[in-house]
Amino acid sequence: MTRVEGTNDYSIVSKLSAAKAEYFKDEFLQEFVEKPRNRAPLINWGYYIRSKSIELTFEAAVKHFADRDLPFQILSIGAGFDTTFFNIQEKYEPKNMVFFEIDLPSNVERKVKLIFNSEKCQSLVWDKVMFENDGKTINTDRYRLFACDLADTGQLKKSLEKLNFDFSKPTLILSECVITYMKEKDSTKLIQFLGEILDNAAFFVYEQCEPDDAFGAFMVKHFQNISSPILGLSRFRTQEDQISRYLAAGWCKCKVHSLTSVFLCLPEQEIQRIQDLELFDEFEEFFLKCSHYFMLVATKGICDILHGVLNLKLLPALPEILPEDKNHLQVQIVDTPNSLKRFGHSMGVGEDVYVFGGFGEENGKHKRLGNFVRIEFKGDHFVEKKLVKNANYERLYASCEVWKGQCLLFGGRQSPQKAFQDMIAIDSKSGNLVKTYKVDQIEGRWRHATCILQDYLVIVGGRNEDNTFRSVIFFNLVDESVIEQNLEVPLVSCTVCPWGSDKVVIAGGQNPTCSGSGAWSTLQETIWVLTLKGKSVKAKKVVLDLEPRFGHTAHIIRNHLVLVGGVGPYGPLGLDVVNLIS
């Protein structure tokens, strides 16, 4: 078995993991998996959105033909142990469909055996006639499974003709991460062959794109490391490249839907349903993946009408903004102590730099870190000046602000089941805990944002195991009173910066899993300017034609809001500057 064939085994186990966790229904997967395994929530979410992309495109086309009792056929290429045939039979009961399935010999032979060892699958394989079953293929009036090298289009044509494939009948072709693993010249020849030989067809292609940013480079390297290189990305790198590719190969219409656009089409109640299945807190990674995978739909003949019946909308074009400055930023790499190698930590800046918690390495083990590190920058390197261990500092995604010689550590989590509610003050010199504030009226949370304004700690948004928050809380550090202002939507992984002596600016944080899809569907960013007057707060909302983001950082420099990094609908973002006066 080749490494590419081996990706089938990993994929089918992962699909079963997601199905068992009730992300989607598929009662046939268990018939093809010998040793089920539970995958991490991030993998389950990935296979869920993959399933949804197929449901809202390919399955919508199947339903179109099945509901009208129209004759059609399906050609599934490189399907592995995919259960699409069985699910279609159960869900749509098509009366005039023949399903053709092609894969490499090893996968086909194994799949034939598994099907005939399963009463559940075997009962659906034929309606009235079994033409052939030699242990290496299946040929019935409903289902025709055979092996063929997709790079050999001449042999493919002969094999299809032998199985009475009708090249004039409406045909739905399904390819999930298959074409991209082929040599580019072979995959292009296959796309052209199908575009030329079929009169009426729709091609549904699920695969990767955008290899040139940091996440894309990581993705490409990952598949190289498992000896399954993504060969198609060397030439067809973007969604636009893919559209041009299929149109040039004889297909009449072509649209590409990123998985982000698929997610944004989901009803709010469906998003809430999957969030309730298991605790999940890796939204940046999830949406980065969504921006690097797509579902392409290319059509010709009478199948052109299918673009109108698909349950998807394209993302709007990116807003017109000022041209990018092509000058490269100058970066100096400096030596840092090993104690700083961590993530999910909190950091405050005063006379020195103060770091708390997070996840990193300690005594050769990767673990949550319960320590305070004070470091000083000396021109070309950082020097560790103090390291204090304390179990109270062991937390992820907390916030840290420096106020009157103290580090104020608020919230964070120990695990997705346990949010910290406390607010503690730590001496910035010694690293010792000096005070615990009474904050019973403020729910514990993580992925919130904080800043200092006057004698207030300003706390914005965040989430815990039960809620996401739309509140902006002004906590008075002197008398411990609270002023609260609610925003229109919850914010998670947003930023808040002080502006002058009486204002704060809140930016981003409209994560579509928590805040609804509005900002991402319209490609507009929202900032809020809150003005503190005595014990009251006045809020002003400003909508910008700027790609929305979360998981970023922000700073205000001379009346300019500087937004750095983060994740948006089209993937990782760079640096944008907003003039707060104009």
Describe this structure in words.
The protein is α+β, with helices and mostly antiparallel strands and 582 residues long. The termini are far apart.
Task: Offer a concise description of the structure.
With 582 residues, the protein is of the alpha+beta class.
Sheet with the most strands?
9 strands, mixed
* Ends apart, CA distance between termini: 62 Å
Q: Name the shape in a single word.
A: elongated
Q: Tally of extended strands?
A: 35
Tally of separate helices:
15
Please report which band the strand proportion falls in: under 5%, 5-15%, 15-25%, 25-35%, 35-45% or over 45%.
25-35%
> What value does the Rg take, in angstroms?
27 Å
Strand order of the largest sheet: 3-4-5-2-1-6-7-9-8
Report the structural category: alpha+beta
Average pLDDT, rounded to a whole number, is 92
- Which consecutive residue ranges, at least 5 long each, have pLDDT under 50? 1-6
Quaternary organisation of the protein chains: single chain
Helix content: 25-40%
